[in-house]
Design a protein that fits this description.
Mean pLDDT: 79
Order of helices and strands: HHH
Number of domains: 2
Helix content: 40-55%
Number of helices: 3
Radius of gyration: 26 Å
Number of strands: 0
Length: 94
Amino acid sequence: MVSQAVKTERQTDREREREKKEQFIYSSPLLSSANSSRVGHIFRSFHPYSFPGNKDTHGINTARTVEVWMDEYKRLFYMNRPDLLSTDIGDVSK
């Protein structure tokens, strides 16, 4: 028969182990907790690879997204990327 002291000690050990796991999870660099929905992304000032045809593929794809989704707010995007106003981004009507 297991004594109450041994049961309590085992329970305490399990609690300590759970706390260690939680501490690891919350301090892991692979997992982040965001307290609000305002999440951003920091882009590099350069691309470590080249795009086909030396086009600004990222800029063109972003402009296509802006044209489809941003409606009256797309002017804010083009204030920062006026070079894309004269760039052919293809047909976005479909």
